[in-house]
Predict the structure.
Amino acid sequence: MDKVYISQLHVEAIIGVYDFEKESKQSLYFDVEMLTDISAAARHDDINLAVDYAKVSECIIAHTQAKPVELLETLVEQLAAMILNEFNVQQVLIRVSKPAAVPQAQTVGVEIVRKK
């Protein structure tokens, strides 16, 4: 399998358990790795046969901003299901970082891997 990836996709969103987190947007950073076969896209030089990382990015941003949730765990599960259902990938790894969540840490986050 080949890998298509997105690194450090920045999204401003409302997310969190605590009341103060629900009052203003916070920065989230997404790293996404998608396993797929790129040979047909490469052979035909055709974006329609490829996993379009721009479209994946747009979907992640739109979903994250449209559907506020409390937990990063909930968000990454939703995003993994969406990517597996809407794009031609067999496996997705999503890592989301929330840098402002713990003042003593550079960042905290969640990472999952899901397969079809």
